[in-house]
Amino acid sequence: MKSLLYILTCSLFCTANILAQTVSGNVSGTDGEPLIGATIMVKGTTRGTITDFNGDFTLEEVADTNTLVFSYTGYASQEVPATGDLNIVLSEGIAMDEVVVVGYGTVKKSDLTGAVSSLKTEDLNPGANASVDQMMQGRAAGVQINQSSAEPGGGLSIRVRGASSINAGNEPLYVIDGFPIDNSPNLSSGGAGGIGANESPRNPLNSLNPNDIASIEILKDASATAIYGSRGANGVIIITTKKGKGEQLSVNYNAYAGLQTVARQMDILSTEEYITLMNDLSVARGQDPVFSASDIAAIGAGTNWQDEVYRDAPVTDHNLSLSGRAGSTSMYASVNYFNQQGVVENSGIEKFIGRINVESELSDRVTTGININTSLVSDNNNIDGIQTNENAGPIYSSLLYDPTEPIFAPDGSYNQSTNLTVNNPVALIRGVQSQGQTNRTLGNAFLSVEALPNLTAKLNFGTDRQSTRRDIYNTRATFYGGPAGGIANIVNLERSSTLLEYTMNYNTSLNENHAFTFLGGVTYQWFQNRIFGGSISGFPTDEIGTGNLSLGDTNTDALVSGREENTLLSYLARANYNLYDKFLFTASIRADGSSRFGENQKYGYFPSFAVGYKLSGEPFVPAVFEELKLRASWGQTGNQEIGNYASQLTFGTGPSVVFNGNVQGSVTPRRIANPDLRWETTEQFNVGIDASILNGRIYGSVDYFVKNTKDLLFNLPLPRSSGFQSVLTNVGEVRNQGFELLANSVNVSTARIKWKSSLNFSTIKNEVLDLGRASSIVTGDIQSVGNTAVIQVGQPLASYYGYVVTGIFQESDNIGESPQPNARAGFPIFEDRNGDGVITPADQTIIGSPFPDFTYGLSNSFSYGNWQLDIFFQGQQGADLLNINVIESLYPANFRRNRLAEQSLDRWTPQNPNAKWPSGVDPNAYGAGKVNTLVLQDASYFRLKNVQLSYTVPTTGQGLLSNLRLYVTGQNLFTITDYIGFDPEANSFGRSNVRVDYSSYPLARTYIVGLNASF
């Protein structure tokens, strides 16, 4: 017995000595610089620490049998025995143990079972970015981001794994520091008297400061997005802003200034070419020449209207931030000023943004924090959008206006051609005043309490409030404002959102082989929109503009107002199980109740399941793989972006009636009720593999997914006898399927030379599977053009729909016996697809798709000593784009409009029978429709998106200045494409799946110089 007690006592004594061991050391990179905030964890436990400002660390009570795992973002992790003093040098690579933000929590990248693209600050696009989403463009596989308008502050269209909806939204949900925001565009159209008729959508993320971003996670598969339920069908983008770090206050100042130029102008006819064309066409039509020799002599060089509209424009940004920690409280604060003038005169954006993030540990078990972002965004915007004929904007009119006309009339007023129905472009630039201003404050506060060991309760309260006002005034200098004596429009929009959220998180381990995480919670969000606007004309002078509407003619006034509300009540749960640190299981469910849907379908339920298998370490896996993981997931998500009251019977203003001799107003039903209206449901299956070799120097990820969206929200046509045109109902199904590839590599890593590369590639096939009882839906109607697209089973959403042009009639052809007997030599030949011997609308067919076959992005980062060069290319292949500018040139509404040079100089004539384009002699007699294969263009492109060269000035670190970096950046330096418009990414319909280019804002080439200084 004594021997046994002796042995036990010795064992306990030895164990106590083992547990009492303290390990310390230093962590640095291969360049010898300390890594601040590197993570040191005891493998297989949740115990760990981080390095301080000098890269030093201390970890107490570590057994010498333990293994320590060292990791740092952008570096390969290392595992070493926990013995004595350690000096660890990490090589640049891919750290699988870095933390990734997911819905309502975080997870180690190595334990991730869903498909998530994670972008850190260094992964984002540098340069003059007015909004956060511009920084992501081309950087993530499976995420197509198109800047539908290149105007400063213009809207972007984002598709995560394709387009899935016809009438509901296709944009992802944004979550900013845990707050899901309303991602609808700011005020852009609608309102009183045509308010904003020529406006493009404003970007709802303009209120964020790109300098504040710490990381962006894009949740793509249902396993990752199902926790957001009815708003997760189009993907979720989680934006995390910077937090205070470091033991002492640090100050950072970042500033740049630059110049923007139009990347390319449209090639239209010069004055000389225009005169020749007008005379030749007039003679071919049997008329006298338009211009005589004396006319030509008087005209001289004429006017290059594009030169009058475009300009070189400055851009500047100043950002000051403070970060630090005092005791148990950390703080990050920033102020930002951004001013970007547009390359089109009278356009631009100016922003003032402030942010403060504070987090404090009130005790060992209680943490609280607050995040507040406030902004004032002002813009000038009277430029782009769908602008036709008399309502055309300056970009449109600069392409069509007669180059023989002068800018000013002899009396000094703006010259208006008597031969055209579009405005003088300069008169539009200076004669239309359009200013918008948005005040927005977004903030949330949280309280986190460790109620029990491993059980944390969190209460989160947030609010998002914005107020937008837009003033538009058309002066007498314009066709629109002249006859009306000036037209004033003012509209105010107020938006608010309030969030109340309670979650509980429980982490436990049965032993070192079984780890569990449970999440449960309830969330409530309330939204309200209010609008008020008015218009009036007939002012005594243009000097006051919108300053005093009472000066206008009250017989012309019009008012509009409205108020909308909707609520979302949700319950959520998620469970994670890690078995032997090898098998990973995730399950989640969310129940969403929305006021937007029918009385019989208020709640939807969105489950998901995912598994992961860490193959690395298995005897049958080659030792070359440090990390190898298989993933598979299935889940359902929803889409509720249909606007408010769509399931209810609504009323509008009806005709006036006479009752008992008195004129009375009336109301009439506008929408038929549908109490069974419910969510669109997206069901997605995903399988993926992640791999890391060569000590993290090469990392790759491949995903295959199938994404089916059913119960599409669709305005189903009704018989006229019903009294309604359509009813919003659930019908139809759309599928997106494809592959995604991400490959990161550290090609060279020495003390002086480094070279890193990253490639993302994705391919998505979109197909309509079902449309209920409708065989097809023709859509995309444009004034003077007609319908441009069709939704049809077996084809991509919003496929281009028109006629096939097979050639041009020649003088030797037997035209009278053709399906176009009234055609003449030089007319286009349309394919008689149904063989009935005549060209009719039945010969229309699908002629192209707006979706690319594949998209890609390639970045390379080179550094030598203190110099660094970053280069990023992006592109797409296989997409088509309907160029309405080509239609307007091919089918001019007025003979004297200018035209694209290619169409006119290579048009059919008896001397040029092999021309690509028709004769242009009598385009209204061509027959068929204006949407055809002649005007649909290949929008494939390869673009040098960003180049940045920087130099870090050596500092001792002992004085006031701790870091100084100087840089020059170029954006959109060149684009290789066959597309003849301003930008193959453009979409004048904004976020619509129907993509057209109609006098879109020209892409800018930007050059900036800047500095980043830390104190």
Automatic annotation (TrEMBL):
InterPro entries: Beta-barrel_TonB_sf, CarboxyPept-like_regulatory, Plug_dom, Plug_dom_sf, TonB-dep_OMP_SusC/RagA, TonB-dep_OMP_SusC/RagA_CS, TonB-dep_rcpt-like. SUPFAM superfamilies: Carboxypeptidase regulatory domain-like, Porins. It is found in: Cell outer membrane. The keyword Ubl conjugation does not apply. It comes from the Bacteria. It holds the Pfam family Plug. Residues 109-236 form the TonB-dependent receptor plug domain. The keyword Transmembrane applies. Residues 1-20 form the signal peptide. Keywords: Cell outer membrane, Membrane, Signal, Transmembrane, Transmembrane beta strand, Transport. It is a multi-pass membrane protein. GO terms for cellular component: cell outer membrane. Belongs to the TonB-dependent receptor family. This is SusC/RagA family TonB-linked outer membrane protein. It comes from Neolewinella marina.
